Amino acid sequence: MEAWFPGNLALFNLLNASAAPNTVLRALAHLFAVDALYALMLAMMVVWFTGAAAARRSLMLAVGAVAVGVVVNVVIGAVLGTPRPFAAGIGHQFLVHSADASFPSDHGTVVWSIGLCLIATGQARFGRGVMWLGLLVAWARVYLGVHYPLDFLGGFVVAFGSVVAVLRHEERLAPWMGAIEAWHAERGKEPLW
Fold it and tell me: How far apart are CA 111 and CA 148, in angstroms?
């Protein structure tokens, strides 16, 4: 991987935590590395149940882009099999993680697929916030020693390609999206609980 991005290891060493990191910074990194995706999913659920039809359409397309991106990541990871920093004996690890393929980052692909899709489908404010969240997730996971910076660049490229693919084939998704919107409209007539 160093041949693809010569500064990858140097940037990793710059961002990775020291052997005895600041406890507040380590806790903050753990928050972004682990809990940020849960917060994003909660925000998406709130928008789903309270937002307009256009917002739900954006979320459905974003979920489609995430699905495509994760499948692409599995294939790339299986082909390249790039070891994570801790598996290669590099840096300091402060997050328990399996030693599966490091490149590209699934977290980066998920967050940036959602953010890019939201921006591309007219939900720019929410999408920009998600993109910033993706940068914090990237920092946190490098800081805690489970990814290289290049893993997140790869995740961004996969996310971009996944969003383009889903938006190009949006008309094929229209029947499912229409059925989901009809269900949502019907549920809107009943109390949630």
Answer: 17
Task: Flag whether pLDDT at 59 surpasses 90.
Answer: yes
> 102 near 154, Cβ under 8 Å?
no
The SS3 of residue 84 is coil
Percent pLDDT > 90 in the chain is 70
For residue 123, give both structure tokens.
Answer: 């939900």
Angstrom distance (rounded) from CA 192 to CA 129: 28
- Rounded distance, CA 105 to CA 82, Å? 11
Instruction: Look at residue 182 and tell me whether its pLDDT is greater than 50.
Output: yes
Name the E strands within 34-147: none
Contact 86, 145 (CB under 8 A): yes
How far is it, in rounded angstroms, from Cα 4 to Cα 7? 9
> What one-character DSSP code corresponds to residue 16?
S
Residue 117 has pLDDT above 70, yes or no: yes
